[in-house]
Amino acid sequence: MQKIKSAYAITLALISFNSYAIPGLAKPTAVVSNVANSAQLRFTAPPLPPTGTPIGRRRGAAGRKCALAQPLTALVPATEQSLGEGKVNYVWGKTSAEYPTFWFYVPDTHTSLKSVEFVLQDEQDNDLYRTRVSLPKAPGVVSLRLPSTATPLKINQKYHWFFKIAGEVSCDRQNPSLFKDSVEGWVQRVKPDPTFISQLEVATPQQRVALYARNGFWYDALTALAELRLMQPGDANFKADWNGLLQSIGLSNIAAQPIVRCCTPENSN
After folding, report:
1. CA quadruple 111, 249, 217, 188: dihedral positive or negative?
2. pLDDT at 173
3. Residue 266 DSSP label
4. Which residue in 45, 102, 179, 248 is deepest, having the highest Cβ count within 10 Å?
């Protein structure tokens, strides 16, 4: 009986230790790894900025001639709130990067794309970066990184981005019609606090993703995880994290879509 009680106590101690272990702190690698994989990765959304409410549109316009299972979609958190008699979507996320990466799902519209453009503006609607983009023919999740030649994001500033596509679409690949579509949202650069930075410095790549997600740095979490998936596309843990991260912001229907290496700016200013 005493041996049973001792074993039970040890088991409870191990459960307690694993449940409260914090990724990035000095703990044995095996234990931290188990904690990172023990639960589905989720994003903890920070409060919306108190000023300059970031109204945007995460999904492309509906009601086209061809009904799409998944429309053009920006991979970013969105919060819907009532405003007067209608509703608005706040599309916004934090980053710690001077030059963040933006992610979008481009659907298979049986389309000949004529124009794809990415635009980044400051809060006064001044263009900071504008470029046409060459997309691959295959549908999927694509990315566009703000280049080092562009103006770096300033700390605590919000920036308005747009992703626009235009081309021809046909349901039966005949009699194409012209269309335009777009999504838009906001990004804000925030400086991490010293404790968070110290945790990142000793964390594994997968633990870094979890730290970014739990501390509300959406753009950093998604980019870091996407890079891991591109390097190891067959890794089941990375796939599960990807599913969990997108599901936590209501984009589980995008999780199964392939990540396509992209994109090539055609010109910029």
Report:
1. positive
2. 61
3. E
4. 102
Mean pLDDT, the chain, whole residue set: 82
Q: How far is CA 269 from CA 120, 122, 152, 191, 249, in A?
A: 10, 14, 14, 27, 32
* Bond preceding residue 171 cis, omega within 30 of 0: no
- C-alpha angle with apex 204: 203 to 208, nearest 5 degrees? 65
Q: Report the first-to-last Cα separation within the chain, whole angstroms.
A: 76
Does this model's pTM top 0.85? My answer is no
| Whole-number Å distance between alpha carbons of 63 and 184 | 18
Q: CB neighbours (10 Å) of residue 52?
A: 14
202 neighbors 148 (Cβ within 8 angstroms)? no
Rounded mean pLDDT, 220-225: 98
Q: Rounded CA gap, 90 and 92, in Å? A: 6
C-alpha 119/C-alpha 130 separation (Å) is: 4
String of b and e for 15-48 (b: at least 16 CB within 10 Å)?
eeeeeebebbeebeeeebbebbeeeebebebbee
- Specify the DSSP class assigned to residue 76: S
Residue 222 burial class via C-beta count within 10 angstroms: exposed 0-12, middle 13-18, buried 19 and up: buried
Name the residue among 186, 183, 259 with its Cα closest to residue 219.
186
Distance CA(44)–CA(248), nearest Å, equals: 8
Distance of CA 156 to the CA centre of its chain: 19
49/40 Cα distance (integer angstroms): 27
To the nearest 10°, report the CA torsion of 169, 170, 171, 173: -130
